[in-house]
Each structure stands twice: as structure tokens, then as C-alpha cells.
């Protein structure tokens, strides 16, 4: 195994997009203990957005990750570090405690390309507070070209630790990932790289191990692939692939049976033909998620024809 | 799209391993019409083993593909060619009609490495009868090294049209496929290459498009991934990837909704953690298939520990 690789499990964070962060405390605590026993490097425990800035109605606490609450859930941190992600415009920087007073080690800033300056402002603030930081450029499949290069130059000059390639639409193949890695390496050569994939085209695991082989050091995964729409690269497959004494897949297999399978019986995530269709069209998965919740959930041909006739992509929201 | 690529859909043949070839005639006819409308090059309609040599109890007709029956099912062949596969020791060569009297265009011979001479004997017989032929070397992940090189030299000297890499255990990654393609190209340079994958490690589609990019011309797929255990590379994803005017994914989407989804409600196939475990151990999926039919179907940790403690692989049957 390459020595610098880090596995970051985002089951609670990306999975929270499936169930509105409605995980109970036992579930999250068990996941933390299992990830720690498995040797996983980071657990992303949720979003650290501000309840003042987003709708809190019916939303679980992992959307906000308030420090007192997180400390209650995981009173004793072990080897696995904790991360949380923030969205541009939804985080109140003044409410973020210094890292030494928080259980969170890493704050990741998710942004679209157009918001790169705002992302860097946030990174600078979190960096001063003592956190590790990353910038996660979402929907990167729609962000190619000059704009990306310029953004990456700014990222390279910022204090951020990692720059993440995020295949939000699950529409990328290995060759696209290769192009992105080359671009990130060229314009942000001082930064560690990370990869976050979605499984719309059954490429999440393949794209992640491809990235690993190309020197990407931070690999996002989720247990049983739990994540929005087609879900993410399964933690269990990555640990099997890395096949290192540093990691042990066994605690993950246990938690799949005890925690993820019962949840999967109630909630849908993972590869489905509807998600493949948005992947093929390089579209946000929201239309597929909506179809899957409707009476037309299996009308794949109708859905394909509808997307074919859309002349312009939806705005990125 | 590379001009010589051929897509071979094996839904009925590999899917027959899931339901004992219990497809009704309407289903198979609809699949043929859909594959033809989609521009798929070949449909593998089943095995052409002899009812004299295998157990016929409770087995559907697609295990035998008798010529009169196939002509009844598909009275009028269209552009999509038909193929059937045979197993060593289970086919009666004397009962095979000349190609011009049969609806079958291509006969594929499945063999383990140890039976390569028998496979070539069959190929010679079928070739004389006017069929296109292929040799499909199964369980290739357990067949590396000198024995494979020698076998491929014999294949190269035979009249066979295609040599297939078959990842029976779904245990191969792109880098393994790359090694195999290089080996096949080196020792059987005169033959077209084919690829048949399984999805144990969520690599079926990735390995198939990787092979395509490396010049492999025959791509095995199945609709909705229907096939033994973790299933195969989905036809719909390949047609989307090739994105050529030669192919149209729409008829496949229709048949998924109308035919495959109702079947999937009754039968299990496709990626599952149990199949991932046999993939990681480079084992035949039969133990995972058995687990999935037992009360311990979700005891993934127990299954993993059991396979860990097996000191020698099961014999290949």
C-alpha cells in the first residue's frame, strides 16, 4: 500500500442526504467504533452548517455537528479523526470553536467553482483556528477548462491542506479522472489530492482505486456505499483493495449486517438505472431521486426521453 | 467508437444460471427484438449442451437450444446474430447441425485451462460445420503463468475466431485485465479478443470499458446485469458508454422495466457484500450463492472468517 493514503468514511455525512441526518446516537457511536477498529483514518460525522442559516425543521443533529453534542456522542476519541463539511453561505464562522476546543480535526469546504474565493476565505479562517482543511470542488464534471485552472492556482496559494475532486454527478470515467488529476497536479502542485465519487455509472470504486494508483492520497468512502442517489465508493471494497495490515475490513462487515442492512430496508440508495441515466447525461441526480420517489419510479425509458429533450442543464443549485 | 467492437448480450445464457433457464418464450423473443432494435451485435440465447449428457430435470430449454425450438422462438432473424455456448464433456458434436441449417451463428466453447486441447477439438469441429467460434477460458484469475501462455499458443494456431478472457470469479482489477490482455495479445496475436466480467467487486463495467479501450473487440454484457451471483456488465451502461449512432439504449430501458424488474423481484442477482467477499478471496461464487440462499444470508463477517480459514481453494468443478 502507498504509505500516505488516508481513507475518509463519509457514511453519516453523505448518507445524511438520504435520511435527513436521522441517525440515532447509538448508530453513529457504533460506526465510529467500527471505523476505528477497522483502522479508517477519518470519519466525517456530518455537516457543520449553522442552524441560523439553514432550515432545521425535521433535520437530524448531524447537519450541524454542534461541539457539545459531538463530545457527548464520542466522549473519547480514538485513532480515527473526525471531520465535518460546510457549505458556502450556510456556515457562521464566528460560531466555530478553536480546534483545540472541538472534537473535529478536519473541516472540509464544499463549493462550486464560482464560489472558490469564498471557499478560500473560509479555509483561511478555519486554518487560523487550528483545523486541517480541504476544499471540495463539487460538480467538477461541469467545471472544466480555464476557470478550473485559475481556481486551482488560488487553491495552491491558500493554506488549505487538500484539494478534492468531487464527482457529484457520478458521470466520470477513469479517463476523465485522469485528466482532472493531471490538472489538479499541474495547477495545485503543493496540495494533497482527494477523491469523492458517486456510483451512478458503477464507476465509484473503480474511479477511487484509479485515483489511488495515480497518487491521490485522500479517498472518500462510505459503508455499504450509503450516500445520496447512487451512493459512494464502499468502504469495505477499498479496505479489501488496499489489503494492508493497517486496515481490517471485519468490523465494517459486522456493522453492515447490524446497522446498514436494516436501514437499507427502509431507505433507498445505491446504483439504479435512473441514476445511471442522470450519470450518462452528466446531470445532477435530483431528478432521478425525484423519479424514484414517484409512481413512475421504474419508467426508465420515459425518464431518459425526458432528459434527452431538456435542452439546457438545470442550474446548479 | 472503435469500429470493430461487438456487443454480445448473454442475459439468457448467464442469467439462466440464476433461474435454471426458466425463461418463457415471450420473454426471450422480446429480448431478441429489443436487442435487435438496440443494435446489439449478438444475443447468446443459451447453452447448447446435450440433454443426453446433463441433467434435464427442471431445466428450461435454453440449456439445450435445440435448433427446431430456437427457430420457433425466433422465426425471422434480424440483424442481431445468435450465439450459444457449450461446456467440455457436455456437448454431443454429432448432434450439431451445419451452421446453414441452424439459427445459431456463433458457438462459444467454455473451458478451464486444463481442457484447452478438448476445447480446440470442439472448435475445429464447429468451424468445419461453418460456425463462428470462440474459446472462453474461464477462471482465468487462477490460470496465470506458463500454462496460460502455452494454451494461448495452441489457441493461436487453431481456427478459432475469438479468444475470451473470462473473469469467472469477478476478482480482477484493471491492472490484472491489462496483464491478461497483454498476455493474450502476445501469445494469440492472430485472434480477436473478448472479455466477460462479473461484478463481485463492482468492477464488471470498469473492466469491460478498460478492455475496450485496450482494443478488445468482443464485449459480453447482460441486461440489468442479470447473471450468476454478482451478475455481469450491464448492457445499458455499455451502450451509454459507446454512445454511437450504431446503438440505441432506449429499447433496453424498456425491457428492463417490463421484463427484468419483475424477474428481479423474484430472483436475486447483482452486487452484494457476500459476492464481494468471494471476489476478494479469488474464490468461485458458489459459496456466496449458497450463503445468500441460507438463513445466514447477511452474516458477512461469519462468511469472511470462514473463507479466511479455508487453507486451499475448492477444486474447480
From TrEMBL, chains A, B:
<dbReference type="GO" id="GO:0008701">
    <property type="term" value="F:4-hydroxy-2-oxovalerate aldolase activity"/>
</dbReference>
<dbReference type="GO" id="GO:0003852">
    <property type="term" value="F:2-isopropylmalate synthase activity"/>
</dbReference>
<dbReference type="InterPro" id="IPR050073">
    <property type="entry name" value="2-IPM_HCS-like"/>
</dbReference>
<dbReference type="Pfam" id="PF00682">
    <property type="entry name" value="HMGL-like"/>
</dbReference>
<keyword id="KW-0464">Manganese</keyword>
<protein>
    <submittedName>
        <fullName>4-hydroxy 2-oxovalerate aldolase</fullName>
        <ecNumber>4.1.3.39</ecNumber>
    </submittedName>
</protein>
<dbReference type="GO" id="GO:0009098">
    <property type="term" value="P:L-leucine biosynthetic process"/>
</dbReference>
<dbReference type="InterPro" id="IPR000891">
    <property type="entry name" value="PYR_CT"/>
</dbReference>
<dbReference type="InterPro" id="IPR013785">
    <property type="entry name" value="Aldolase_TIM"/>
</dbReference>
<keyword id="KW-0456">Lyase</keyword>
<feature type="domain" description="Pyruvate carboxyltransferase">
    <location>
        <begin position="5"/>
        <end position="257"/>
    </location>
</feature>
